[in-house]
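quick one before i forget lol
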Amino acid sequence: MQNLWSDSDAKDAIARHAAKGIGEDLALRVYTTRLLGGEPRLVLHGGGNTSVKTRVADVTGEQVDVLCVKGSGWDMGTIEAPGLPAVRLAPLGGLVGLQALSDEDMVNIQRCNLLDSKAPNPSVETLLHAFLPHKFIDHTHSNAVLALTDQPDGEELARDVFGKRAALVPYIMPGFALAKKASEVSRAHPDVEGLILLKHGIFSMGATAEEAYVRMIDLVTLAEWRLAKATRKIFPGASLPDAIAGAADVAPILRGLLSLPAKSGGREAAQRFVFEFRTSAQILAYVGGREIARYSQQGPVTPDHAIRTKNLPLVVPAPAAGKLDDFRAGAKQALDRFVADYHGYFARHNARQLPSKTELDSIPRVVLVPGLGLFGLGKSSKDARIAADLAETTVEVVADAERLGTYQCIPEPDIFDIEYWSLEQAKLGAEAEKPLARRIVVVTGGGSGIGAATAQAFAREGAEVVVVDQDGARAKDIAGKVKGLAIACDVTNPAEVRVAFDRIAATYGGVDIVVSNAGAAWQGKIGDVDEATLRKSFELNFWAHQSVAQNAVRVMRAQGLGGCLLFNTSKQAVNPGPDFGPYGLPKAATLFLMRQYALDHGADGIRSNAVNADRIRSGLLTDAMIAQRSKARGLSEADYMGGNLLGLEVTADDVAQSFVALAKASKSTGAVITVDGGNIAAALR
């Protein structure tokens, strides 16, 4: 483990914080916390915490002793000073004499002693930091330490590796009891550099930020050296099909199976998950091992993973290429067993709870696919990435543990206590989901104009958005704004469209809503226009819509969750303009294409609707074209753009809102919304 401490960086951190009125102790605490949080082998997604005991002025100006400790919700890799809220130290230290303290009382006391009532909740391990006498304290869930202690003889191994440099603390669920025990161990071994929390993690302590940090690095390095000596062969391979189906084929099947059925509203209302796929040589060895049913079903490598990954991953059969129906059946059987086992797990351990707990959903958050890799699941792409990151860490830790001996984590009752611990569940937050959360939305022509506005409108509704555009730079720009995926694709090329949808399925797990928006306008009197121009317009304004919709339906049917196709068909489809036939004719065909999809795929739960918009300033309707079209109609440009019943110019965002409304209209299909400010000639009848 590399020591990243830099004297010059530390001095810079002190100077930057001093300019904000923040003292040296807290400045260095932020600096080394970031060093630890930036190393995924030490800290992942909220795991671990740090503290410093210092003196600050309260509201009266009096200097008081405080513990600045990592606050809930802050990431150690990016933490700032507000992420280390100050808690009055004396009241916390006084608690060490108590025989017991409930979690609720512990949290209340910590919050009551915050110097800033608006600060985040101090870490659930605040009392452990408070009860230790050291000025700077670091806590991580080091992979190497976990691999060493997640063993039947983990205590003996740890004692051998760390000797007198670190004292051992038996596994106790985080909270008051663990804090008291750690304090007892520390008092019995006052000269140690750290504490090894068996099957949990490691603490290092020091008089300075540098000392605590360097001790963490040195102790972890000792564990890494011991693991490096282990050369035992691991994960002998199981028999796999000669050819394995790809993630793009497997993910939609799993996404459909792993959805929560809707209480009403049909398949499209099912609560689905966003996926994150991972594969590597190490992951493939792990998921393809003969003994996967043993080592993968032990439990999480460190307790707090359970709130993100549940107690166990789901293991499905290897997906043979060309035999996806067999894979679906096998995966369904595996899921049914998982769900039944989870219900049993809950019933066994809920029986001893006072008061009883409410069972969480029984859907796994990690799926292991032999021959292919693993999927993390979450309510958002962020949560799915977290689950996948933790699953990858599990693979690494279990591999090291198995190379050394036999992987064995905390017992099942302790896993349950963590998974259903109210203080851990609070980390996930109770924020209400937005209307289109968990939905994967694809917008073609999404790099500008109506497409860009539509991508941003769906993102505001909570959707995961894929921006598809022929101009890759534009797609990337808009995708950056919506925190989505950018794909450069010529939608008139069926092969590129197929590749794009496969990438989307492999990235997010599937597709829920597609806005087929890409288009361009060709003008000309229909009796004079050349065939090449007309065919070119049909390629983009009709055939591309068919290619996009066909690929979307392919993925949607594999999911079995229904879906929604939305077409930008333009008012030209029903109210052709003079000299605009090359554009209007394929748009009219696309309007009827929308209706055909509604007719043919309603039984699949797939809705198909359209928006007929008119006179929207965009890359299609440029200033030059506005001048041409207004001249063709004998109008001024202002009258042309506002020439509707409401006398208002319609914007790209107005069209985007109509696409969103249609996406939410779960019982509307074959429908057309006209967004043109009012034009009776374009009204459907």
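fyi The mean pLDDT is 94.
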